[in-house]
């Protein structure tokens, strides 16, 4: 009864898909949807492939006509393993490594952990988080900011975030914007849109969104001590 309830709650989909190899995957319909396929991997389910796209991680039949959005779980061991989230975490780690140079980084003096925060200057919880940035740093949590304008590039947050990343002193501009002080809305070539699209790919739906060192996503703000405990709990649960 418990297993049946879990399956219903997870909304699992069982399907029979066409057979095929990675090289034979037809991406015609995916392309029509505006999805750029970045990688393809055969899953443990015959005829079902995992694809990493510009819109995130999905599953697709070999003939490219059936697209599945959801979670795949390995239930063979003592504990249920979320295979989808594992692979999403690996994707996040890989993609974030490519944009490290465009982050605004606050380094903890005695670093124990490092988190990446998708942030918006107009987000109240982001403002509260930043107001306590020293408390996070004192606990050994380094913070790497990337931009996520919740209302798009042309909204107030989008314009402010671009100005922050164009400022000579990015940290000062970020702090001023989050304190709701006026900043010069300068423009330049900046990474804000790239950050925004990456956040959507990662499954970010609001701010702040926290990515741990392991690539796991924590939605929403957490007080400094609670965040430290959550990071260490998640790190301890990782397979050795």
From TrEMBL:
Principal location class: periplasm
Annotated SUPFAM superfamilies: DsbC/DsbG N-terminal domain-like (SSF54423), Thioredoxin-like (SSF52833)
Residue ranges of domain Disulphide bond isomerase DsbC/G N-terminal in the record: 30-78
Keywords attached to this entry: Disulfide bond, Periplasm, Redox-active center, Signal
CC terms in the record's Gene Ontology section: periplasmic space
Compartments where located: Periplasm
InterPro entries, A to Z: DiS-bond_Isoase_DsbC/G, DiS-bond_isomerase_DsbC/G_N, DiS-bond_isomerase_DsbC/G_N_sf, Thiol:disulfide_interchange, Thioredoxin-like_fold, Thioredoxin-like_sf, Thioredoxin_CS
Start and end residues of each Thioredoxin-like fold domain: 108-229
Highest rank taxon of the organism: Bacteria
Similarity-based family: Belongs to the thioredoxin family. DsbC subfamily.
Known function: Required for disulfide bond formation in some periplasmic proteins. Acts by transferring its disulfide bond to other proteins and is reduced in the process.
Record protein name field: Thiol:disulfide interchange protein
Source organism of the structure: Pseudidiomarina planktonica
Lineage of the species this protein comes from: Bacteria, Pseudomonadati, Pseudomonadota, Gammaproteobacteria, Alteromonadales
């Amino acid at each position: 009864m418990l297993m049946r309830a879990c399956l219903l709650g997870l909304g699992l989909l069982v399907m029979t898909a066409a057979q095929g190899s990675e090289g034979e995957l037809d991406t015609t319909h995916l392309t029509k949807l505006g999805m750029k396929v970045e990688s393809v991997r055969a899953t443990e389910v015959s005829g079902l492939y995992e694809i990493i796209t510009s819109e995130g991680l999905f599953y697709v039949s070999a003939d490219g006509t059936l697209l599945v959005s959801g979670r795949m779980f390995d239930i063979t061991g003592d504990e249920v393993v979320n295979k989808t989230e594992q692979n999403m975490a690996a994707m996040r780690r890989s993609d974030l490594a490519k944009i490290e140079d465009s982050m605004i980084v606050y380094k903890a003096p005695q670093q124990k952990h490092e988190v990446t925060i998708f942030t918006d200057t107009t987000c109240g919880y982001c403002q509260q988080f930043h107001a306590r940035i020293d408390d996070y740093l004192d606990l050994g949590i380094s913070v790497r900011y990337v931009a996520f304008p919740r209302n798009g590039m042309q909204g107030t947050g989008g314009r402010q975030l671009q100005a922050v990343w164009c400022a000579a002193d990015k940290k000062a501009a970020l702090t001023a914007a989050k304190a709701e002080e006026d900043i010069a809305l300068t423009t330049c070539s900046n990474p804000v849109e790239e950050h925004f699209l990456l956040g959507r790919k990662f499954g970010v739906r609001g701010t702040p969104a926290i990515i741990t060192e392991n690539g796991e996503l924590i939605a929403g703000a957490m007080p400094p001590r609670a965040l430290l405990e959550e990071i260490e709990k998640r790190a301890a649960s990782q397979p050795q």
